[in-house]
Structures are given as structure tokens and as C-alpha cells.
Specification:
Radius of gyration of chain A: 24 Å
Order of helices and strands of chain B: HHHHHHHHHEEH
Distance between the termini of chain A: 20 Å
Strand order of the largest sheet of chain A: 5-6-7-3-8-9
Largest sheet of chain B: 2 strands, antiparallel
Largest sheet of chain A: 6 strands, mixed
Structural class of chain A: alpha/beta
Strand order of the largest sheet of chain B: 1-2
Number of strands of chain B: 2
Low-confidence stretches of chain A: 1-17
Shape of chain A: elongated
Radius of gyration of chain B: 21 Å
Mean pLDDT of chain B: 89
Oligomer: heterodimer
Low-confidence stretches of chain B: none
Number of helices of chain B: 10
Shape of chain B: globular
């Protein structure tokens, strides 16, 4: 599937099963810097209540700039945005949003507990929430140690605790697993999966496609400041195909055309065919091939990974 | 804004750097303002009376160290030098937010940017007030010790004079603190702000008007009266000068206290407006 086809078939505002209240909505959101660089280019984005929305893109694609605009840290050059029912960065919006933008930033001379206590004061949150959120991210044993002594994983967890302090309806997490070791990544991933359950909306940018696949209910791919594809992971992948290798080749082709139709059978060379067909019919097709005297040496589902799709869409190699 | 103000105080109280800075200021006030000066006046080096008015010795200047003069002594010694400490406090309270990246943490809480700024300025005012009161308390105590050691009576200026002096010092230190806050907002860091702030406080204005003063004439003083260090000095000098054997220590200031108060207040307002504009309009990209 080409980028253009993906763009046409997948990028649509309302996908099957997607809808309801928009928690984040941008219209023609644009950020142009004085140097002429267009970091975000007429971005239209809708995130619905209860979604875990993955925001994917290579470095410099405009992910962080977009998230910063949604938090009011950066002012758009053009376009509009609504976040949690209000203008980005307004007190009404901020009161309902928790966020981590890149590396979590806290006061190094204060303990983790005091840092959260401080944010609780700023937000008018009860002090008891501090203990609760520290427990939620399993940081209680180190709560009274200075932030400057924390490992990267602990800093990230404190950042998530800070984002949760207000019990926000929308979480904006910019690469929350950045720099973590595999165990830390797994912990944060599981935490986000838990947080995404229920009514809470999570908008997450990540450079780990496997994680996005596990965490997100919907994904948007951004390239050069524009959304180039949007949909569920399955929709982005498109239909899986069946790879069949059998001889004699002509007999195999005839059987496969009869089963799936000529348009859905592609010869890949070396007596191998790619067949667009419902994978639940695999056993039936195999039976017909064998009954026709075809020696089947390979029969497997050929499913494209999100990484393949991503590289097609963004023209990058080896992930983000 | 009250929650922001509380939050800022929460940070300041826990920040060792602020307390170290205030402690150094107070230690210097004792050491330079009283201890070393008293030693020099009490045990003058040979030939130290040269250049003094006829009939006076260094010991005659000890009157400046006694309680009746502690207000004048504090303002004249620490108007600019103490102001430098206030400038650093202002820089630290704002510049560190950029250095640690906590500015983005602050701006993604609940309050708008201007509320965050005014809450911070209110907390800065409290820190400056603590500095001023502590400085006056330390100087009052030091002058009492000096008077006691020299066997002099301990007589303080009238309470209204002390209160006026506290307010004047608060305005002077407040100006320097907001100057530091503005510089650190402008440069989005502490180092540059402290460097330029110190350069201005200790060199730029003094040097420029020192050189221009060589031209003579009233025009230089007319221009100088609009500048902050000049007004800091006018305000300090408005509390009078110390008389040694009936001789007045300094000439009458070029402008009066009212002029100085208005000018310093206008500077505070101007720097607050500049900081508010920068805080409100700038993107946070770090």
C-alpha cells in the first residue's frame, strides 16, 4: 500500500468505532518560525474521550511542537486548537490536563515528595493526593530523597505522578519512555495501559512503535508537520496477505485465482504468491491446493509490521 | 494568585542558595560594616590621620558605628552593595526556572503565565523584606555591641526614622531584585543575568557618570538624576550624613527623597511590565 493510498483510505476524521466527545481538536494548526522553518503545517487532529492516541513521527517531524502548542507553551502561528474544552494553556484547560513534555523537570534541591507537594499547592490539590500518586508510580520508598539523586526511570515516574496529581481527564505524554531501561519501559508502558482504561484520554508521542502498538487504540503518523496517516493499528497495517509457495506453479496459480480472484493474487517469483484473502480460509485453500496435486512448501500469514508502515509513510529507516 | 505565592514561598524556604546568600550578606554587614572598621578606627595604622580634617583622627569616625547612626550607616553602605545581593536573589528565583527547565512544569499547572509571574514577584518581595529587616537587625545589634565595647550609651534613632529607612531599603532592594528577575527572564538564564547585573551595579553607571563628570557643569547631574544608582544614593543620603566633630560628612544630594522614590518605583513598574510582556508572549521551547 502506498502512502497516497493510505492517506486516502485511512486519514479520515471519523473511523468506524471512533467518535464521541472530542477532547483535543486542532484545525489548521501551524507553527512557523522566523527562520522559515515550518515545524507544524496545517495540522488537523481529533482525539476522542477515552482514547489512547499514539502520535508517531521521526525526529523533527513536529510531535513535540504540536504537544507544546496543545499545552500553551508555544503559540501557533495559524490555526486553532481546543484542549479539554478550552484554549490551550488557559487555566480552564490546564486544570483538566496532566502532562509530561520531554524530560520531566523538577527542583533538584527538593525531594520527590516536596516537588509533588509544591505542584499540589499550585494546583489547589489536597496534599493526600501526593502520597496516592507516589504510590501509584511505586515511588513511595524514595519519596523523601532529593530529586537530584533519582535515576532517569525514577524521574520519569515522578513526572507521571505529577501529571496524575490533578486527576486529569486528559494526559499528554511526550515520549514518556525516553531513556528508560527495558524494565523501566515495561513498567511505564503497563502504567499507561492502566491509565488509559476507563474514561481518561491519553495522547502519547513515542518513538517505540512496538509500544505504541501495545498501548494505543488509535495512531496518527506525522511527517514534516503534517498528519500523513491516521487510524487504528490494524487499519494502518491494512489486510494481511497469505504467502503461498507451491509447485507446479501454474496449477498453484490456477487454484489460488479460483479461490481468491485474479485481482487478489500476485506472483512474487520462485513459485511464490501473495494472496489477499481472509486468513481464516487458509486451511481450506491448502486443502484445495493439495487436492489439485500442488506440493505446498510454504503457507503463512504475511502481516506488515507497524514499522514497515511507518517507514513507508515517513521515508525513514530503522524506526524513529 | 495566592496558591502561586504559597508555592513560590514553599520553594524559597527550601532553597539553600537563597539562605546562603542572605547569610553572606549579613556576615559581610558585620565584618565589613563594623568589625574591620572598628579595628581600623581603634588601632589606626601609622600616618592614617593624613588627609583628614585638621584636629581629627580615625577614632573620631567611630561615631558612625554607634546605634544613633546605624540607619545612615546601613543605607549608605548597603544601598548598592546589598542591592547586588537582592539582584542575585531575583535572578536565582527566575533564572533557575529556565536552567532546570521547570518553567514548562510551572506553565502546565493550573494558573496563567501572568498569575505565575505576579505570584513569584510577591514571594520575591517577601524575601527582599526578610533581607532588609535582617540587615537592619544585624546592623542594629552590631552597633550596640560596638557602643557597649567603647563604653558609649546605646541610643537608637526614633522609630519613625527606622521605619522610613526600612521602607526606603525595601524599595532600593526591591528595585535590584526586580532588575535581576527581568534580566534572567530576558536572557532565559542566570549566568548572563548575574554577570550583566553586577557589571551595571558596580561599573557601568558609576564609570559613565564618573567620566562624564570630568566635563563639569550641571548637565551631567541633570541626566544622572534619572538613573537607578544615582537615585539609590539620593534616597540613602536623604537620611542625613554623619557629623564628625561638627563637620558634615557629605554634600546635599542633587535630588530629594521624593524624586528618588518616584524614580525607583517607576523602574520597578517598568521592569515588571517588561517581564510580564516577555513571560506572556514568549514560546517555551527548552
Amino acid at each position: 500500500m502506498t502512502t497516497a493510498v493510505l492517506d486516502a483510505t485511512i486519514r479520515r476524521p471519523l473511523l468506524p468505532g471512533v467518535g464521541g466527545e472530542k477532547v483535543v481538536e486542532t484545525r489548521s494548526l501551524t507553527k512557523r518560525y522566523g527562520t522559515g522553518i515550518v515545524a507544524v503545517d496545517s495540522l488537523d487532529l481529533s482525539v476522542y474521550r477515552g482514547e489512547v492516541y499514539g502520535f508517531l513521527g521521526p525526529n523533527g517531524a513536529g510531535k513535540t511542537t504540536t504537544l507544546r502548542m496543545l499545552l500553551g507553551l508555544i503559540r501557533p502561528t495559524l490555526g486553532t486548537a481546543t484542549v479539554a474544552g478550552a484554549a490551550p494553556g488557559s487555566p480552564a484547560s490546564l486544570a483538566r490536563v496532566g502532562a509530561i513534555v520531554e524530560t520531566p523537570a523538577f527542583y533538584p534541591y527538593m525531594t520527590g515528595y516536596d516537588n509533588l507537594r509544591l505542584l499540589a499547592i499550585y494546583c489547589g490539590v489536597k496534599p493526600s493526593r501526593v502520597d496516592a500518586t507516589l504510590a501509584e508510580v511505586e515511588l513511595t520508598p524514595r519519596a523523601h530523597h532529593k530529586f537530584s539523586t533519582y535515576s532517569l526511570g525514577m524521574k520519569q515516574r515522578l513526572g507521571i505522578a505529577a501529571a496524575l496529581l490533578k486527576e486529569p481527564e486528559l494526559l499528554i505524554l511526550d515520549e514518556p519512555t525516553n531513556g528508560l531501561d527495558p524494565q523501566g519501559m515495561a513498567d511505564v508502558r503497563n502504567l499507561i495501559i492502566e491509565l488509559g482504561k476507563g474514561d481518561r484520554t491519553v495522547l502519547i508521542s513515542s518513538h517505540l512503535l512496538g509500544e505504541v502498538e501495545l498501548m494505543c487504540t488509535r495512531v496518527g503518523v506525522i511527517r514534516k508537520g503534517r498528519i500523513v496517516a491516521e487510524g487504528t493499528v490494524d487499519q494502518l497495517r491494512g489486510a494481511a496477505t497469505l504467502a503461498v509457495r507451491g509447485t507446479p506453479e501454474e496449477t498453484a496459480r490456477a487454484i489460488l485465482v479460483a479461490e481468491a480472484g485474479a485481482d487478489n493474487v500476485t506472483a512474487m517469483g520462485d513459485a511464490t504468491f501473495s494472496v489477499k484473502v481472509d486468513l481464516q480460509r487458509t486451511a481450506e485453500i491448502n486443502k484445495h491446493l493439495v487436492q489439485a496435486g500442488v506440493s505446498v512448501t510454504e503457507l503463512r500469514a504475511d502481516e506488515r509490521s507497524l514499522e514497515d508502515i511507518f517507514m513507508e509513510l515517513t521515508g525513514t529507516e530503522g524506526g524513529l | 494568585m495566592y496558591s502561586v505565592f504559597r508555592g513560590e514561598l514553599f520553594k524559597v524556604v527550601r532553597r539553600p542558595g537563597i539562605w546562603v546568600l542572605i547569610s553572606v550578606l549579613l556576615a559581610l554587614a558585620i565584618l565589613i560594616g563594623y568589625a574591620i572598621t572598628w579595628l581600623i578606627y581603634t588601632f589606626p595604622p601609622p600616618g592614617s590621620s593624613q588627609g583628614l580634617p585638621p584636629g581629627t583622627t580615625l577614632a573620631d569616625f567611630k561615631v558612625a558605628l554607634y546605634p544613633q547612626n546605624f540607619v545612615r550607616q546601613t543605607l549608605s553602605q548597603w544601598g548598592v552593595l546589598g542591592g547586588v545581593f537582592a539582584l542575585i536573589v531575583g535572578v536565582l528565583m527566575q533564572g533557575s526556572e529556565y536552567g532546570w527547565g521547570t518553567i514548562k512544569t510551572l506553565y502546565t499547572q493550573r494558573s496563567g503565565r501572568l498569575t505565575m509571574l505576579f505570584g513569584k514577584i510577591a514571594a520575591l518581595a517577601v524575601v527582599v523584606a526578610v533581607m532588609v529587616v535582617a540587615l537592619f537587625a544585624v546592623d542594629a545589634a552590631s552597633s550596640s555591641v560596638v557602643a557597649w565595647v567603647d563604653g558609649k550609651t546605646i541610643t537608637f534613632p526614633d522609630l519613625d526614622v527606622i521605619v522610613k529607612a526600612l521602607v526606603a531599603a525595601f524599595l532600593i532592594f526591591g528595585f535590584w531584585a526586580i532588575f535581576g528577575l527581568t534580566l534572567s527572564t530576558l536572557f532565559r538564564q542566570s549566568a548572563m543575568a548575574i554577570g550583566l547585573g553586577l557589571a551595571y551595579a558596580l561599573v557601568v553607571e558609576v564609570l559613565i557618570f564618573g567620566l562624564l563628570g570630568g566635563l563639569g557643569g550641571d548637565i551631567v547631574k541633570k541626566i544622572q538624576q534619572w538613573f537607578p544608582i544615582a537615585n539609590t544614593n539620593y534616597l540613602a543620603q536623604s537620611f542625613g550624613s554623619i557629623r564628625v566633630r561638627g563637620i558634615q560628612g557629605q554634600t546635599t544630594p542633587y535630588a530629594d527623597a521624593s524624586h528618588a522614590v518616584v524614580m525607583l518605583f517607576l523602574y520597578v513598574l517598568a521592569f515588571t511590565a517588561i517581564t510580564a510582556y516577555l513571560s506572556r508572549t514568549r514560546d517555551i521551547t527548552a
